[in-house]
């Protein structure tokens, strides 16, 4: 999948006539060696091949990236049979375990020799491609794994397009893979029968590999590091390899030595993933510190009011705002905590874990439940309750299932303040001004004009709460740096960042009945246009699904493209799991085109992944984007002025899907873009779309962890 189309005409000489016999002998020896080894065991820590899939040096294996694991790989591999004419040889890949047994990789092959004075600077190959692999279910529990895959899906240039099937087996330290690929690419670099062997060298982390990819042979060494506890149990792999036996277009043998460095990072803990399947497992008893005895000394807090006051101080000390604590006796001695959270911005589960943990430990004797009422922008948003005894037991490494069964969650709760005896009539203070600084990056990747062109700016957002549900919102852009191709008058000048005041708007959030949440902003947008942005979410009864309506209307910006004055969207979001959704709808896009859109969203911890397809009139686009935090899990302490970074930095890449009638794949920055709202309900109110009882249940261990890590007992004495 390429950003720009690239016509490449090359003649690749055929292999020698005895290739088939060589392959038969090679695989014969593979089977002999396999038979001499011990009972098969499942392989672990799949490597990343230079083709941009899990596998060996070059060939794919039947392994896939574990669910929620990211893989980054960089090296100087270039298909040997392409010769040595290119001065630049770069091979980058990025992969993710999307689902159980499904992986998606993006590969950027940059083989070129720049031509001075040419507008099209890449004299060679500069290609972006997407690779998909699925491991198939098998009726046997021990035996070979089988996978099918497609490389270079869609896109304008199909330099590496191929479909394949592969089987892999592990025999003790020896691994073997055997498969067949059918290539339909401009460059037949992966075509025919292929196979490989790998041999682990004890506990050293080293493996020796030997392969044939259907075109040439490869041999090499790979070292895999132990898990890095300081980097979320990530692993680093370093590979060196020698390719030989290929024939270049010149007719000469094209042997070459290459290297690659790979980083694999799991985005969620095994426990977090298992909770989605309701497989609750207690954490190791020594994984977290003991509960501080100062949290529950009756001698220091002899009366219920003393204990409530101490709890309030502890929550404020932990960084929660708008805190109010009281008892509601007509519901069987319920401890009520109202709060608003801005400090633990990655996930609202962290703040809720603090409220539940401190509340359960410090509740007055006889309290049956803790009821947490969560506010956003002064707006009562949802409430969650759990049994005190159940949660105390859970904190001490008891079964999570008891908390799960006691947990009650309700969206848009009614105000029952009059039923509560508050320890303090007024909530604690909230920040008067919140300032967020985030990077704003425009870029292109893998075009004929440049491998990577960019324009970076700092987006300084100021938010001042006004009244219930309202805030004044401003955005100021400060350009930082840009590449030459984004200079004024250059090919990508339209993507260059502007400086100055971009946004000044008044934003209001409000409930319309029990199931309709809305947000409206009016003011100045896009530097010099005035207009209105609005979003409404209608929550479905007896479901976590929702209907979304979004719109933006502006006065026509001088110099803007036709149709950029109005954008509308209606979509339905269906929750597949607590952390995964599918959203489909229709839009009038920001460029005036109309058509359908569909998005698949999945959260792995605090990293979100979105794969989408959008069709505007005759143009079709597909893309992938990720959302990830750029702040610590615990932000700065709140004050009159509260400074923070962004907890949801969104970056992605997209491509136009070409057809025989429309083969061009040009960079079109403004074409078929989703509605760009300055703020969204997902970002400001709905925990990035992760808000339901089932989702909170899936985060119970995270909530427990947050209590132990972030509790502050300095004012709980």
Describe the structure.
With 717 residues, the protein is mainly β. The protein has three domains: 20-266, monomeric porin ompg (Porin, Beta Barrel), CATH 2.40.160; 274-429 and 697-710, no CATH class; 433-685, Porin. Helix content is 12%, strand content 42%. The protein is built from nine helices and 32 strands. Strands 31-19-20-21-22-23-24-25-26-27-28-29-30-32 form a 14-stranded mixed sheet, with no helix packed on it. A hairpin with a 2-residue loop joins strand 28 (594-604) and strand 29. Helix 3 runs antiparallel to helix 4, helix 4 (348-362) crosses helix 5 (388-395) and helix 4 crosses helix 9. The longest helix has 17 residues, at 19-35. Mean pLDDT is 85; it is low at 1-43 and 270-283.
Main features:
717 residues; 14-stranded mixed sheet; globular; disordered N terminus; twelve-stranded antiparallel β-barrel; 3 domains; Porin; mainly beta; 42% strand
- The overall average pLDDT, rounded, is 85
Total beta strand runs: 32
Give the oligomeric state: single chain
Strand order of the largest sheet: 31-19-20-21-22-23-24-25-26-27-28-29-30-32
Number of domains: 3
CATH architecture classification name of the largest domain: Beta Barrel
Q: Which structural class should the secondary elements be placed in?
A: mainly beta
Radius of gyration from the alpha-carbon trace, in angstroms = 29 Å
Report how far the terminal alpha carbons are from each other: 61 Å
Strand content: 35-45%
CATH-defined fold name of the largest domain: Porin
**What level of helicity do the residues show?**
10-25%
Which outline best applies?
A: globular
Summarize the main sheet: 14 strands, mixed
Note poorly predicted spans. 1-43, 270-283
Number of helices: 9
Return the CATH class of the largest domain. Mainly Beta
């Amino acid at each position: 999948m390429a950003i720009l189309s690239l016509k490449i005409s090359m003649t690749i000489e055929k292999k020698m006539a005895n290739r088939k016999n060589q392959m038969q002998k090679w695989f014969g020896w593979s089977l002999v060696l396999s038979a001499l080894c011990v009972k098969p065991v499942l392989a672990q820590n799949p490597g990343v091949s230079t083709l941009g899939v899990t596998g060996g040096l070059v060939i794919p294996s039947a392994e896939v990236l574990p669910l929620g694991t990211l893989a980054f790989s960089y090296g100087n591999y270039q298909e040997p049979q392409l010769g040595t004419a290119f001065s630049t040889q770069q091979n980058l890949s990025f992969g993710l375990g999307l689902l159980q047994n499904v992986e998606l990789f993006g590969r950027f092959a940059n083989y070129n020799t720049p031509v001075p004075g040419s507008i099209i600077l890449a004299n060679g190959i500069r290609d972006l491609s997407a690779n998909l692999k699925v491991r198939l279910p098998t009726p046997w529990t021990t035996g070979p794994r089988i996978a099918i895959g497609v490389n270079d899906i869609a896109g304008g240039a199909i330099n590496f397009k191929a479909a394949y099937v592969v089987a892999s087996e592990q025999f003790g330290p020896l691994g073997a893979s055997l498969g067949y690929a059918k290539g339909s690419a401009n460059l037949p670099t992966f075509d025919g029968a292929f196979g490989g062997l790998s041999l682990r060298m004890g506990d050293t982390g080293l493996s020796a590999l030997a392969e044939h990819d259907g075109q040439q042979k490869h041999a090499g060494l790979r070292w895999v590091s132990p898990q890095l506890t300081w980097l979320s149990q990530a692993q680093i792999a370093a590979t060196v390899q020698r390719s030989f036996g290929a024939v270049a277009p010149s007719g000469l043998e094209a042997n070459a030595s290459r290297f690659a460095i790979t980083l694999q990072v799991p985005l969620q803990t095994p426990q977090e993933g298992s909770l989605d399947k309701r497989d609750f497992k207690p954490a190791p008893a020594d994984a977290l510190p003991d509960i501080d005895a100062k949290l529950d000394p009756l001698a220091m807090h002899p009366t219920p009011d003393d204990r409530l006051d101490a709890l309030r101080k502890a929550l404020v000390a932990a960084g929660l705002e708008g805190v109010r604590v009281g008892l509601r006796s007509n519901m069987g001695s319920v401890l009520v905590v109202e709060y608003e959270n801005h400090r633990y911005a990655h996930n609202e589960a962290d703040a809720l874990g603090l409220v539940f943990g401190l509340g359960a430990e410090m509740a007055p004797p006889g309290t049956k439940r803790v009821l947490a009422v969560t506010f956003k922008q002064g707006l009562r948003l949802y409430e969650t309750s759990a049994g005190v005894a159940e949660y105390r037991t859970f904190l001490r490494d008891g079964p999570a299932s008891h908390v799960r069964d006691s947990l009650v969650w309700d969206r848009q709760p009614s105000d029952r303040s009059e039923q509560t005896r508050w320890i303090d009539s007024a909530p604690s203070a909230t920040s008067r001004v919140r300032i967020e600084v985030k990077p704003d990056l425009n870029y292109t990747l893998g075009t004929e004009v440049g491998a990577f062109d960019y324009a970076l700016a700092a987006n300084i957002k100021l938010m001042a709460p006004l009244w219930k549900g309202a805030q004044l919102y401003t955005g100021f852009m400060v350009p930082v740096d840009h590449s030459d191709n984004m200079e004024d008058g250059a090919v990508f000048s339209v993507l260059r960042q502007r400086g100055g005041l971009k946004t000044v708007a008044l934003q209001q959030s409000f409930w319309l009945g029990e199931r309709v949440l809305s947000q409206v902003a009016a003011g100045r947008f896009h530097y010099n246009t005035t207009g209105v942005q609005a979003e409404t979410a209608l929550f479905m009864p007896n479901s976590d699904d929702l209907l979304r309506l979004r719109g933006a209307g502006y006065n026509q910006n001088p110099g803007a493209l036709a149709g950029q004055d109005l954008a509308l969207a209606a979509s339905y979001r269906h929750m597949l799991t607590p952390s995964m959704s599918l959203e489909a709808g229709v839009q009038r896009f920001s460029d005036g085109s109309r058509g359908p859109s569909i998005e698949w969203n999945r959260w792995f911890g605090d990293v979100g992944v979105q794969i989408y397809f959008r069709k505007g009139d005759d143009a079709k686009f597909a893309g992938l984007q990720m959302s990830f935090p750029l702040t610590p899990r615990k932000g700065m302490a709140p004050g009159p002025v509260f400074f923070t970074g962004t907890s949801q930095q969104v970056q992605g890449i997209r491509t136009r899907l070409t057809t025989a009638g429309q083969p061009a794949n040009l960079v079109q920055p403004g074409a078929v873009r989703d509605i760009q709202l300055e703020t969204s309900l997902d970002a400001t109110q709905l925990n990035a779309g992760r808000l339901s009882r089932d989702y909170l249940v899936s985060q119970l261990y995270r909530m427990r962890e947050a209590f132990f890590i972030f509790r502050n007992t300095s004012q709980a004495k």
